[in-house]
Amino acid sequence: MPNSVASFIICTILGFGIGFAGFELANKNDEASTETPTETATNTNTPTDDHEPEETEQPAPETVSASSEILNAKGCLSCHAVSSLDLDGGATGPDLSQAFTGVEDKHGKPLDEFLKEPTSAVMSSVISGSPLSDDEVQQIVDALQEASEK
Ligand code: HEC
Q1: How far apart are CA 102 and CA 81, in angstroms?
Q2: pLDDT digits (tens, 9 = 90+) for 45-94
Q3: What share of the chain has pLDDT > 70, as a percent?
Q4: Is the CB of 142 inside a 6 Å radius of any atom of ligand 1?
Q5: DSSP letters along 64-125, please?
Q6: Among 10, 49, 59, 128, which has the highest number of CB atoms less than 10 A from its own CB?
Q7: Closest-lying ligand 1 atom to the alpha carbon of residue 120
Q8: CATH code of the region 61-148
Q9: pLDDT tens profile 88-122
Q10: Residue 102 has what pLDDT?
Q11: Looking at the keywords, is Iron present (predicted)?
């Protein structure tokens, strides 16, 4: 009798132990498979991270996200798409893919001057309501130059 009680206890402990070990293993595999993609995503999404300088293979995606960032941050995308940069946006204003070369023909001044002092109605009120610094104008011009070359 005591013997069977003892073996019951031992079996219980063994069974529990093996089950737990299996659970642990499965858990570790899960962690390993989910961790890799999460880490890559974090790295590409946070260019301000400390890891940044170590990574040398990122300039291409960064240029695109930098261009979209300034257009997004300034609210341009609420009215404009830039299809050549794959940026979806509002349909109130024209697609800006060719604005870098097109603005001078249409509005009689190069893009950077147009952005400082737009000649068209809607853009005049957009810019007077939220003026762009020289630096921001330059970033937008760079982004739209890139867009026009694609
Ligand atoms: C409230 C909506 C709105 C916002 C916000 C807006 N735009 Fe516009 N944009 C327009 C409209 C509408 C036009 C068409 C011309 C006009 O009536 O001003 C235009 C025209 C332009 C043009 C001339 C394009 C062409 O082919 O004639 C450029 C360049 C431009 N916008 C850039 C920008 C940039 C850069 C921003 C962000 C700083 C911006 N816009 C924000 C509505 C907007």
Answers
A1: 15
A2: 444 555 545 544 444 445 556 667 999 999 999 999 999 999 999 999 99
A3: 57
A4: no
A5: HHHHHHHHHHTTGGGT--BGGGTB---SSS---TTHHHHHHHHHSS-HHHHHHS--SHHHHH
A6: 49
A7: 18
A8: 1.10.760
A9: 999 999 999 999 999 999 999 999 999 999 999 99
A10: 96
A11: yes
